[in-house]
Amino acid sequence: MVNDNTILVGVDGSHASYKATWWAANYAKHAGLSLQIVCAYSLPSYAAVSFDATYTAMGDDNAAHNDAQEILSKAKAIADEQGVDAQTLIVTGDPSSVFVELSRNYDLIVIGNRGKGGLAERLLGTTSSSLPAYAYCPIVVVPYTDDHGNLLHLNNVITKVAVGSDDTKWGIRALQLGAKFAESWEAELDAISVVAPSVKLDDPIVKAKVEGALDGRLDVVETHYPDLKIRKTIVTGNAVETLTRASRDHDIVVVGSCGRGGLSGLLFNSTSQGLLQHSVSPVLVVPRKFVEAEAARGEQATALDELVEEMPVTRAAADVEQEIEVNIDPNAADYDD
Q1: Where is the UspA domain (predicted)?
Q2: 23: how many CB neighbours lie within 10 A of its CB?
Q3: pLDDT digits (tens, 9 = 90+) for 167-209
């Protein structure tokens, strides 16, 4: 059964994963959704593929459970601070495989990026193990720092949503989900169509054709969301560079992924120049497998009790919570106690 009203966020003890927890809790509260926080590990070599470096000195399953409990208690404190009573879970197994399997059961999974190794590196490090490219549900990847290592501040209210729009099935679905997300926040939707540098937009006939294609993709969106404010942007150039620039003045960027060709082929290749590695705002990825299997998702869901175990935890102490806040938000010192 698919958890239609639940967001899943993965944590591993890194600050990047706690920042992802903050984003997931903020969105869950806004949308009236439940939040589940999961910590994944595998034995006997879990330390190399799962927990953050702080949690690698473990000798057995009991130690792993204890450290998972500590990780989850910190993540729960972040959710509690926003008024979200999150359920905490553990799952054993290789994270890159486990999260793909878990994605059959959720409408949205959230993970952090640019942590020191750990979960983010395992799930985003290569094309073959990229969760956003192979998941069965949309994935939000939350950045921790920019390319220069500067800690990023994320807004708790979404006002501008950018969508990379192309004519693939995944690109069209991304446009629809981006519109739905923007509408829920009463935000502006910026539909961005990137065309090759060889396309002569200064030619009125060519420009009209490109604009007509974008208008056609937006027809369904405008019908479903007549009050949504939509901005249309058409540019020539590189899709990754264009959407990375868009991440600087939008609260989230939405893209489709088919893993090859089209826009997604530019985003999910073996180079480190992809959008996920350079965006300074969260990226919502709509995977090919999600689009292909969307109609039959309920039939393909995995029994969660075969994968996860609930691990109730108490909220971390206030001083621990404050230390996490300082490490995930550069503006934390400006907030009132």
Answers
A1: 6-143, 160-287
A2: 23
A3: 888 889 999 999 999 999 999 999 999 998 999 999 999 999 9
Q: Are residues 117 and 188 in the same domain?
A: no
Whether residue 287 lies inside any domain: the answer is: no
Do residue 34 and residue 134 come from a single domain? yes
pLDDT single digits (tens) 229-250:
999 999 999 888 999 999 999 9
Burial state string for 61-78 with b = 16 or more CB within 10 A and e = fewer than 16: eeebbebbbbbbbbbbbb
Three-state secondary structure call for residue 176: helix
CATH number at residue 173: 3.40.50.620
* DSSP characters over 82-95: TT---EEEEEES-H
Pair (218, 273) in one structural domain: yes
pLDDT for 299-332, tens place per residue?
Answer: 666 667 767 889 999 999 999 999 999 999 999 8
Burial annotation 187-218 (CB, 10 A radius, 16+ → b, else e): bbbbbbbbbeeeeeeeeeeeeeebeebbeebb
Same domain, 95 and 212: no
Q: How many domains does the chain have?
A: 2
Distance from C-alpha of 127 to C-alpha of 53, rounded to nearest angstrom: 23
pTM of this prediction exceeds 0.85: yes
Q: Specify the DSSP class assigned to residue 273.
A: T
Q: Give the whole-angstrom CA distance, residue 131 versus residue 127.
A: 9
Whether residues 169 and 265 share a domain: the answer is: yes
Question: Which contiguous run of DSSP H or E holds residue 35?
Answer: strand 34-41
Distance of CA 260 to the CA centre of its chain: 20
- Kindly give the pairing relationship between strand 308-310 and strand 106-113: unpaired
